[in-house]
Amino acid sequence: MPRTRLTGLVFCLVLPFLLVSLGNCTQLSAEEKKAKHYERGMAYFNDEKYQEALIEFKNIIQLDPKDAKAYHQLALIHLKLGGLPNLQAAFGELTKAVEMDPTNEDAHLKLGDFYLLSQKPLEAKKHAEIVLTASPQDPKGHLLRGRSLIIEKEFEEGIAELKKSIELDPENEQIYIDLARAYLAMKNPQEAEATLRQALETKKDSTTLILAMGDLFLVQGKQAEAEVQYQRALELDADNEALYAKLGQYYLATQKWKQAEEVYQKLASRKPDHETPQMLLGEFYTYMGAGEKALEHFQKAVELNPKSKPAGNALINFYLDNQKWDEAEKLISAAVEKNKNDSLIQVFQARLLLGKGKADDAIPLFQQVIKDEPQQAMAHQYLGLAFASKKDIPQAIQELSQAVKLAPQDRGVRKALAAMRLAEGSYAMAVEEAQMAIKLNPRDVQAVHILGQAYLQQKDISKAKNVYQAIVDQIPQDPLAHYQLGLIAEQDKKFQEAIDHFEESLKLRPNFAQALTQIAGIRINRGEAKQARDRVEQQIKASPDNPLYYNLLGQLWMQANQADKAEQAFKKSLALNEQLEVSYMNLAALYRRTNRMDEAIKEYEQLLKKNPDSVSANMVLGIMAQQGKDHAKAQEHYRNILKVDPKFAPAGNNLAWLIMEQGGNLDEALTLAENARAQQSDNPAIADTLGWIYYHKKGYLKAVSLLKEAVEKLPENPEAQYHLGMALYKKGDEAQAKKALETAFQLSPDFPGSEEARATLKTLNES
Predict the structure, then answer these.
(1) Is the dihedral of CA 531, 532, 533, 538 positive or negative?
(2) What whole-number distance in Å separates Cα of residue 309 and Cα of residue 427?
(3) What CATH number does domain 682-767 carry, 3.20.20.140, 3.30.70.1400, 3.30.70.270, 1.25.40.10?
(4) What is the band of 15 on the pLDDT scale with cuts at 50, 70, 90?
(5) How far apart are the first and last CA of the chain?
(6) Residues 687, 710: contact at Cβ < 8 Å?
(7) Alpha helices in 594-733 (DSSP H)
(8) At residue 698, does pLDDT exceed 70?
(9) Burial 169-207 (b: 16+ CB within 10 A, else e)
(10) 240 in the Ramachandran plot: left (φ > 0), alpha (ψ -120 to 50) or beta?
């Protein structure tokens, strides 16, 4: 029997009891549907179910793309949701709302606020004037116009508008605060204070106004008066977490560490089940450099409220800052499962990759976040650090400068930019940024060290000494500060004082090879060769696994013409670290000095017969062949090593150098040098090789950056100075080029490339 297809209407008539659940049976008009969506949307909005409300009002727009009321409500929902994407969406919806209904005053006012935030006062003023044309007595319109005029520095007219706004709405506390700020901008703190006192006459217990008064006092340097106001606000609202944070920040800014800690602990005692006090304590102990205590409180915050995103993010950030990659990865993975589109979590993912040495993978992730959210300061900061890890200083500075614009009070950003300015050679700018970082946190020892280094580079030894002495006075256990004071004392020929500082460095850091080298050098210069060797052997007992100490001992035995003991020391050094190129070089030099080249070659060739993959045998033979000008044989040995271990930096660096010097494939040389750099990023010899390759490829900006790094670490190497001088010359910096080339000749009248250096210097002198 054929079945009859029932229409929806017939179906509803046959089964009327299903009408309750089948809404499509009722034919509604478009206006009726809009009304239903609006009713449901407002109910969701009032219940703070903003995502559900968003859907309802979007349905209205689908039904009627010209519904100004729906656009306005969508904007309000996006404002409630918060975050940059929602703020951008809110701006778009408000723009459409006023296009569809130019009489919507609230939309005009909110658009005006957006323009003020974007520092576009003329656009904001236009919207204020639209509102005031329709409603001349609208206090918000006068407020918006007044704020716009103040930004334009039209102070008198702006103040008049703010006063009109107060007259129309005397209960609005924010207008008084804006008026006080305007007076302060006019350098009239008396009127600013009088304005706030006027407001407090009727609202004496307003914590908002009291905090504003405290801020006004603080700006004027009246710390005691400011503290009274902050404390009074807290007394009036003892459960307000923001007030504890405010008072704590004041104590940090005025270096009252104990009082700050007490404020946060008081809040934690008052709210033992809340995560915010624990986060504040975690941030405080981070600021103080007490990492273990900070971690304890961040973890407790998460335990108290596992669903708190701020608490979870704070813990992730701590793990990343302290290189606890495994712990960070677990939390990041869990956060990605909840919301993979969260931009902050994406930044954390990229930071994790960067921390694991995967800068090439991290950079595109940072760039994508910035594309989606250009105002994400942390993304700019760590993108800058990613470029810095690849020694791309110009790009690093560009990103860090943008981060500073977005987060000028972030001490980490300031410190990173100071370090990059130092690497760039912009020492005055490095001083400025380091001082700002120190101002934001006087306990940041890294920032103080950067400041000291910048002063040293400026040859301002007195200021540098004061900086390092201040570190020692505050933190006597800082080995780097003692080391720098030792170098300064040595430069002043105060040798015993220098030794005392170097000894203190070694006491604090037993593996501090540079300090021991300086002590040995002073002893040698005094004619105390035996004492120098004895001191090195003494330190080897304290740090028996440090290959640099055996290398230093070998050098001292070489100077004493004790070849057997020197050879033994160099071989021990290489047994501990077969990648230590300096020990290979010293061992080869020892064989050459003692006329044992043939004997040594036979010995290592015998080793290769037994073990063709021997890295140490190939390396020594490669260096010997290179020194003997048998470049083909040297390349063969270095390539043999790289077949066994492609990441063996000394072989990669030496092979890259030979390929370049012998007119080989520069792209292959560049790849080899960059791979070596990836393994030993702090090796100045590799920086020199890589920089010199970029010079030959005409990448002079990159070359200068790398060669400056090499010279900073090898200041007594004439060849490095020559390379830097030539790169600076090609870059067009003739003054600095001349300085570097002159330094090269001061160090030695004859070095590889000295003829070209001499000719270039002659050209510079004639220009």
Answers:
(1) positive
(2) 40
(3) 1.25.40.10
(4) very low
(5) 108
(6) yes
(7) 597-610, 615-627, 631-644, 649-661, 666-679, 684-696, 700-713, 718-731
(8) yes
(9) beebbebbbbbbbbbbebebbeebbebbeebbeeeeebb
(10) beta
**DSSP category for residue 290:** -
As a whole-number percent, the residues of the chain with pLDDT over 90 amount to 76
Q: 481 — alpha (psi -120 to 50), left (phi > 0) or beta?
A: alpha
Span 474-502, mean pLDDT? 93
Give the residue, 277 or 459, on which the prediction is more confident. 277
pLDDT at 27: 65
- According to DSSP, residue 78 is labeled H
* Amino acid making up residue 712: E
Please compute, for residue 710, the number of CA atoms within 13 A of its CA located in the half-sphere on the CB side.
27
Structure tokens at 635: 């390349």
Tokens for 265, please give them.
Answer: 């602990």
Average pLDDT over residues 451-475: 91
Cα 373 vs. chain centroid, distance in angstroms?
A: 17
DSSP annotation of 375 reads T
> What average pLDDT does this structure show over 258-282?
96
Nearest residue to 161 (alpha-carbon basis) of 172, 178, 196: 178
pLDDT of residue 317: 94
Per-domain boundaries in the chain: 682-767
Give the per-residue SS3 of 124-192. HHHHHHHHHHHCCCCHHHHHHHHHHHHHCCCHHHHHHHHHHHHHHCCCCHHHHHHHHHHHHHCCCHHHH
Give the global pTM: 0.69
Q: What is the pLDDT of residue 610?
A: 76
Give the pLDDT confidence score for residue 600 in this predicted structure: 78
